[in-house]
Fold this sequence. Notes:
This protein is an alpha+beta fold. The protein has one domain (about 1-70): 2-Layer Sandwich (GMP Synthetase, Chain A, domain 3). The chain contains two helices and three strands; from the N terminus they run αββαβ. The longest helix is centred in the N-terminal third of the chain and has 17 residues, at about 1-20. The chain is globular, with a radius of gyration of 11 Å. The protein starts with a helix and ends with a strand.
Amino acid sequence: MREKVEAALKKIRPSLQADGGDVELVDVKNGVVRVRLKGACNGCPMATMTLQQGITRVIKEQVPEVKEVVAI
């Protein structure tokens, strides 16, 4: 499952990097994906929306067995 999540993140990463941010996969366990927002994404007021509507949506589309995506 980790490889599938990494592949999904590769699709999202260019958009984040274009705005000076990035996302790092920390862990995948029991259907819960833990990510770390980096760069401009860390502390950005829009980070929650980016996580929910961007990152989570794409990961769940690509890897349906994912239950939740959590930023740490």
